[in-house]
Every structure is written in structure tokens, then in C-alpha cells.
Amino acid sequence: MEIANGRSKDRPLVDVRPEGQMLATAIAAAVLLIGIVLAYGIKRFSLGDSVTLIALMIIPLLAYGVVSGDISEFTGPGGWGAKFREEAKKTIDPIPISSSIVEGEFVAKGDFVQLENVDRNLAPGKPVSMTLQLGRGDYYQAPVIAEYIRVLSQHDPDMSVVVIDPAGKYVASAKGSVVLAQLTDNRNSEQISRLMAALRGSDPAAIRTVGGFSDKSIADTASNVDALQKMQSENTARLVAITAAGVPEGIVLRDMIVTRLLVELAPEDK
User: How far is C-alpha 39 from the geometric centre of its chain's CA atoms?
Assistant: First the structure.
């Protein structure tokens, strides 16, 4: 194993605080046992390479350090490393959601003529959210909405359908795939009628009773940790960020937040 420049070879590989070491050791041992079983399976059936086996041996060390309270530093062959800073929440300034949002393309659904231009102008790699506004009467037609979702899903398979009220405030959202399934289920015409009636009306409560829709959201001033906690508690990988006025600002992605936090945890180049 390599050590960082300027550090004694006698320094322990992992620095941990004394409290909780017995529990940490037990958990690390359990992880090690699982790792050995997985390593045997990988080796036996040729499912991986030496890198995978090394990772399985490293995980118990990381588990030990995390459970006991801190891993100060860990370095390995080739100079790769993992840096777990003491009390990570204090050393990392939470990045406001307003600055970590990947701005989604909030597409106001129009007709088939507009769809071609929307498809052409969508920025690659960005999450897509189609907005539908309540209280527009017969402006929305089920086949048109379904076709929009099909096309937009090609850019973002996890696209969201965001519903706003006549004033532009957030009401509810749903996964595009769920809405598409409801609109194209010819065996359940009542379901289609219920969804379209809710969209054509102006009562926010009506759309929230349609399967798949919910009013889950988060303030655009919340921290990354707040967002991750809410995503975990609500079992979702993305949330609609809304302003203090209740207007949807964008889509917050769990993967993006986790990536940013991991980058902050990485040791700086010296």
C-alpha cells in the first residue's frame, strides 16, 4: 500500500476514534465475510477481474471507518484514494439546490406542429419536464399528450410531467411513463377520462387523486442534504424545486447531488 507524501510509514492505514470500535469491528467483519463469499463466486465463475476482488477487500475497511465515526485517509496502489473527512456535514458547505439544479426543459405542451420544433431544440443531456396547466378546457387532447411524452422520453426516459395551476404555481407531478400508460390503456377508458377531466378543470385536488401524481416538491433554497433526506424518505430519485412563490424552478436529481458531494469529499491535489 502507498502512503501520502510526508506521512510516516508507521502511521496506521486507517485512523478511527475509539468509541464505537466494537460495533464497527463487528460490522466490518460481516462485510468482510460477505466480500469473501462474493469474491469466491466471482473467481469461481469468472464474473470479474482483480480490481473487483481488491474492491471487495477494501469495503470492510471503509465500513469500519464509517461506522466508528471517521476514516481520515486511505490510499492504495497506483495512487487512487478515498477521502472521508471528519464530520463530513461540517466540512462540506451544502450546495443550495438553486445552484445544483440541472435546469430541465420545461416544455409547455401545444400541438403536433410545435412538437417537431420542441424535439429539435431540446438540449442533450438535460432532464425533461413537460408542463400541463389546469383550467384550459379542451386545449389538451389525450393522443397529443401521449405523443409528446413518447418523443420527450427519447431525450429523458425518466422525464416528468409537471402540472401547474392557472397562475403558474406548482400543483403536482408524475413520471412520464406512468402518465403515458394511463393515456394509452384502451382497456380502461374511465381512467383516461378521469385524467383528462382533472387536467381540463381548475381544481388542484382533482389531479392529485389521479394515480401516479403527487405534490412532492422541495424549496429551491434547501440544501443538498435536505434534498437527499427527502428523496430517501419519499423513495424518489428526483424532485421538483419550487420558489417561495410556489412556481416550479427546475428538477433536482439525486444522482447529480450525490456526484457533487463525492467530488467535494475527494482529496485535493497537492
Answer: 29
Measured at the alpha carbon of residue 204, what is the angle toward residues 202 and 209, in degrees to the nearest 5?
A: 120
169 grid coordinates:
404555481
Domain ranges of the chain: 21-86, 97-259
What CATH topology corresponds to 97-259?
Answer: CBS-domain (3.10.580)
Residue with cell 402540472: 163
pLDDT digits (tens, 9 = 90+) for 65-76: 544 554 444 444
80-93 pLDDT tens trace: 334 433 333 332 23
CA distance 188 to 184: 9
pTM over 0.90: no
